[in-house]
Write a structure and sequence with these properties.
- By secondary structure, this protein is of the alpha+beta class.
- The protein has a 6-stranded antiparallel β-sheet with strand order 1-6-2-3-4-5.
- Helix 2 runs antiparallel to helix 4 and helix 3 runs antiparallel to helix 4.
- The relative contact order is 0.11.
Length: about 350
């Protein structure tokens, strides 16, 4: 007869542990439900974070500009070398064809030893003329061979140079892609922060920007302490003034949008002066001015320790520049740029 056993009851210790765990879970759930939501950052805190991201984006932008400029330069150099190689190969082919023609002519006329030809010749004078021609032909062949050797060496050197530049171009394109991705990442993060603001907060920020713009423009127009621009600096400054209100776009060189060094290089180009593309390279475009009091309207002015921002001095301690993403070309006090004034450059 089969035995029937009662199911084993859980131990008292196990019951106690389970009960305690359940109680703890309930308590934690209750605390989570009753916890105060994390405080939303204020408008000013968001602005500070956004401004920092825009500054970092501008740093990356100038590196992007440098890589882009290098890429364009390499592409032109490679194109020139490739054109030279193509022309050189045609010249080499012509030299080889010429040498082949001379060799064929010599073969057709030189089947008998020259001394025997002289002995058998009915007209020794005529033979001597032919022998002289053969000697001259041999000299032409030697000269042609020398030219071929020189041309071959030149072509090999040019092909090697093109190969190295192609490797450099590939690395530059990789760097360009990284910098572009970095800029876009910074701008995307900034936009996400701005999206956390209410419509009223966004409007308040815009009003603050507009008030700052009006104040800076009024100071430029009413200030008379600075040395006015002259010559090409005046023409460059006038060109930049004509673009007030034009939007900032990273990597842009005008005429419908600019980044900081894009504006300054475009403005001086309108005055007939070519200056480098990036802010760091523009520091070598002229005479350095260390003191702010010595600046003249139209001088280039540089900011931040790494010199990633540049504008045009507008007088009365104001700068005319393309500030950052989300802004337009405008006047601004040099004290509110966000980074220290380093020096100026008179182009």
């Amino acid at each position: 007869m089969a035995s029937h056993r009662r199911p084993k009851q859980p131990s008292r210790t196990r019951v106690t542990v389970l009960t305690t765990a359940a109680a703890a879970a309930v308590a934690l759930s209750s605390q989570a439900a009753n916890a105060a939501p994390s405080e939303k950052p204020s408008k000013d805190e968001v602005k500070a974070k956004v401004d920092k991201l825009y500054e970092e984006a501008e740093q990356a932008t100038e590196k992007y500009n440098g890589a882009k400029e290098k890429q364009e330069k390499l592409q032109k150099e490679i194109s020139t070398i490739q054109d030279n190689v193509a022309r050189g190969q045609e010249e080499l082919n012509d030299l080889r064809d010429g040498l082949g023609s001379m060799a064929s002519a010599q073969y057709r006329s030189g089947g008998i030893d020259p001394s025997l030809q002289l002995f058998l010749s009915a007209d020794p004078d005529n033979y001597l003329d032919k022998a002289s021609t053969l000697d001259q032909l041999s000299g032409q062949q030697v000269e042609a061979l020398k030219k071929i050797q020189v041309k071959q060496r030149d072509l090999a050197q040019q092909r090697s140079e093109a190969s190295e530049k192609l490797k450099d171009l590939s690395a530059t394109r990789t760097e360009l892609g990284k910098k572009k991705k970095e800029v876009q990442g910074k701008l995307s993060s900034a936009q996400k922060l701005l999206n956390t603001l209410t419509a009223q907060e966004k409007a308040a920020l815009q009003q603050e920007e507009q008030r700052a713009n009006r104040t800076s423009e009024r100071q430029v127009l009413t200030g008379g302490k600075s040395t006015p621009a002259s010559g090409r600096a005046a023409a460059a400054f006038a060109a930049a003034q004509s673009k007030i209100g034009t939007p900032y776009v990273y990597g842009a060189t005008g005429p419908s949008s600019f980044d900081c060094s894009g504006l300054t290089s475009w403005a001086y180009a309108q005055a007939g002066v070519g200056i480098p593309r990036t802010s760091q390279a523009q520091t070598g475009a002229g005479t350095r001015i260390s003191s702010m009091s010595d600046l003249q309207v139209g001088d280039l002015v540089f900011f931040f320790n790494d010199l990633h921002h540049v504008g045009l001095y507008a007088g009365n301690n104001q700068v005319l520049h393309a500030p950052r993403t989300g802004t337009n070309v405008r006047y601004e006090s040099m004290s509110t740029i966000g980074g220290p004034f380093m020096f100026g450059v008179r182009v």
